[in-house]
Amino acid sequence: MKRDATKQERSWVLYDWANSAYSVIITTAVFPLYFKAATDTAGISPASSTAYWGYANSIATLLVSLLAPILGTIADYRGFKKRFFTFFLGLGVVFTGLLAVVPQQQWLLLLVLYMLTVIGFTGTNIFYDAFLVDVTTEERMNAVSARGYAMGYIGSTIPFILSIALILLAQQEILPFSVGAASQMSFGITALWWGLFTIPMLRHVEQIYYKEPEPHPVRQSFKTLGQTFKNIKANRAIFLFLLAYFFYIDGVDTIIRMASAYGADLGVSSTSLLIILFATQVVAAPFAMLYGRLAQKFGEKPMLYAGVTVYIIICIYAYFLNSTLDFWILAMLVATSQGGIQAISRSYFAQLVPKESANEFFGFYNIFGKFATIMGPFLVGIATQLTGSTNSGVFSLILLFLIGGFVLTRVPSAAKVTADASASQTIS
């Protein structure tokens, strides 16, 4: 972190450092391979286990998506944002810890526990993203948001290295326990890392922009929710951005969630997968920062176009993958844009919405993103089962990037939206 960053900015960014351990170990790397091994032992085919993995992600994100706008609306009242953040944090950390004690043979229970960790992780991010308006200024949002993703990639490498070391040493029988036990230890490390490095966020970040509490907040939230939806429909820039985001972030998140399962289906060894995913984290960090700097210079939309274009190339290349080297190349392509497109999307949206209603709008931001991640894994699951090829499933995601990129061309720049809003206020 730069020295000119405030304590609130540093604490907010540090949560990306904390929860990215979950992203890489539970969502992307170790746990998917652990689950694959469990289903393989149970006699389930690779294509079917990949489909089950996709369905589990879809169901978990559906539950959060249904609650996101309501909880986001309530969280705009003074004092509620951090309460919801803390609740989902506890849910995610506790059930991630429980993954470390459930026997690998109970693959269905593991899948259920994983779904609960997804609910905790996803729910926490709704309020974490909305805290961006409380910790920094509009001028610094691109840089702070990108720095968060960069720190997340850097921070996640530490527990990831520990996890890889445990697993590889167990494979070589240097350590006196199995690979499965080593994987379980990595889940415990993840829970500890996630909880420990969230403490600064809990201590130093407060809700600055809020509405005063009203009687019957839940009932009032439904009324406010309806008004917010009308405001979104009336605000062309916000509506079109959310529509574009719905499609392109679907592809991004699906590729993240399905990466290990995809690699395993291609025959990439578990050891190679772990090394590749570690390298992806390392490469992604500077590229996330680069996206933030380039967005400051050229604007948010050109960098979003760049990210969408890279992912279209990724989908085309994925269709022809047939070796570990191909998977290496694919992973490095993902690393160049994964963090950048997410960081710029977050900061761009934060500039479009009114700060005192940030949670309401970020509730919709997250529901658009999470409903998208229901569709993506489901699409990959169906395509994989119908064709018997994971390559075809990943290639099908190209449609989402093409639609998202096209709609994005209709969205005005954040600077223009801000200027129009200022001119409107001046006239009134």
Topology:
Elements: H1 7-28, H2 30-41, H3 46-75, H4 80-98, H5 107-130, H6 132-135, H7 141-171, H8 179-196, H9 199-204, H10 217-234, H11 236-265, H12 270-298, H13 300-319, H14 324-352, H15 358-387, H16 390-395, H17 398-408, H18 414-427
Helix pairs in contact: 1-5, 1-7, 1-8, 2-3, 2-11, 3-4, 3-5, 3-10, 3-11, 3-15, 4-5, 4-8, 5-15, 7-8, 7-12, 7-14, 11-14, 11-15, 11-17, 12-13, 12-14, 13-14, 13-17
Number of helices: 18
Shape: globular
What is the top-level CATH class?
Mainly Alpha
- Number of discrete domains: 1
- Please state the CA-atom Rg, rounded to the nearest Å: 21 Å
- CATH superfamily descriptor: MFS general substrate transporter like domains
CATH architecture type: Up-down Bundle
The major β-sheet equals:
none
In whole angstroms, how far apart are the ends? 41 Å
What would the average pLDDT be, to the nearest integer? 82
Q: What share of the residues lie within helices?
A: over 70%
**Could you name the ranges where pLDDT drops below 50 across 5 or more consecutive residues?**
423-428
Protein described:
It is found in: Cell membrane. This protein has 18 helices and no strands. The protein has 428 residues and is mainly α. α11 packs parallel to α15. It starts with 6 loop residues before the first helix and ends with a helix. The C terminus is likely disordered.
